[in-house]
Design brief:
The protein is α/β, with parallel strands linked by helices. The chain contains 8 helices and 17 strands.
Length: 322
């Protein structure tokens, strides 16, 4: 079976590697254009492109696939490439470009998507983040047959995994990437044997996982501590969460919920090596356990306090109420 692969980040590269290792013929890889990254903002190839180049797989990087979009000539060239590249199916994982119907209809067996949630919950761009942020007990991988709607296609395979109390998006990402890679190989092998019965997604339970914005990264200590702890885990490693203290931006990478103590939301209740940094919230409190100041390194709270002082009784983010 010949498989065209479309994907961009590490999540997709794990799947591409598995498909390659399983012996499927990959005549073409689509991925996003190289982009500046790192402190030097040097042009960097995607994880998918890096793997493809290392294994001499042809790569195309169209900026758009929409014939009616801003770059019709680019899209037309990409369509022609897909139409003239012999293949049976396209596998898509975190590609980052919308596949119009004109592309979905090209492969003989259509396009299969590896999606990081239990559909129809968390359709959209950031399913792993939103599952943790919302306190879901489980998530998983869905392999679906793609159609024009946003993650609305019928399902070919699904497998769940529990979300542990201290899972971050980074940790869950790696677990789901490995699971998605295994599942797509299994699905392709089944497809080689004949058609797979697809299950329509339920009409109930639809939620949308909006793309994560840096504007969401600030912590509002009026919210319950348990909600903020989930957000810290959900935004780890990107974009991270933060609070302000005396003109400094303090990134907060890890925190635990502790029982309610006296104090108003945002008030520093303790800041010492024994207790750590404890912040009152709308309900209960947060013990901050890993912090980072601008230009500094991420540090355990005991090391952070050696070079940065919090004054108990003062407030993160806002002055004391009058």
């Amino acid at each position: 079976m010949k498989v065209i692969f479309a994907g961009t980040p590490e999540f997709a590269a794990v799947a591409l590697e598995a498909i390659h290792a399983a012996g499927f013929d990959i005549p073409l890889v689509l991925t996003q254009p190289d982009r500046p990254a790192g402190r030097g903002m040097q042009m960097q190839a995607s994880a998918v492109k890096q793997f493809a180049v290392q294994h001499q797989i042809p790569v195309a990087q169209p900026i758009s696939l929409r014939l009616d979009g801003k770059y019709p000539d680019v899209a037309k060239e990409a369509h022609q490439l897909l139409q003239t590249t012999p293949h049976d199916v396209m596998v898509v994982a975190a590609y980052g470009l919308i596949l119009p119907t004109s592309v979905l209809n090209i492969p003989r067996l259509g396009c299969l998507n590896i999606h990081g949630s239990l559909l129809p919950r968390w359709r959209g761009a950031a399913p792993i983040h939103r599952a943790i942020e919302s306190g879901d007990a489980e998530t998983g991988i869905t392999i679906m047959q793609m159609e024009a709607g946003l993650d609305t296609g019928p399902m070919l395979a699904m497998q769940s995994v529990p979300i542990a109390d201290h899972d971050t998006t980074g940790q869950l990402h790696d677990q789901l990437a490995a699971l998605g890679a295994k599942m797509i190989v299994d699905t392709l092998r089944r497809l080689e044997q004949g058609p797979i019965t697809a299950t329509p997604q339920p009409e109930k339970g639809v939620t949308y996982a909006a793309k994560i914005s840096k504007d969401e990264a600030g912590l509002d200590f009026n919210r319950p501590a348990v909600e903020l702890a989930r957000k810290i885990r959900a935004f780890h490693p990107f974009p991270g969460t933060h609070a302000h203290y005396n003109g400094n931006i303090i990134k907060i990478w890890q925190a635990d919920v502790v029982e309610q103590r006296s104090g108003q939301p945002g008030q520093i209740l303790a800041a010492n090596p024994q207790d750590g940094v404890i912040i009152a919230c709308g309900s209960n409190a947060l013990r901050l356990t890993e912090l980072q100041k601008a230009g500094g390194k991420r540090l355990p709270v005991t090391d952070f306090l050696k070079g940065f002082a919090f004054t108990p009784g003062t407030f993160l983010n806002s002055p004391a109420p009058t």
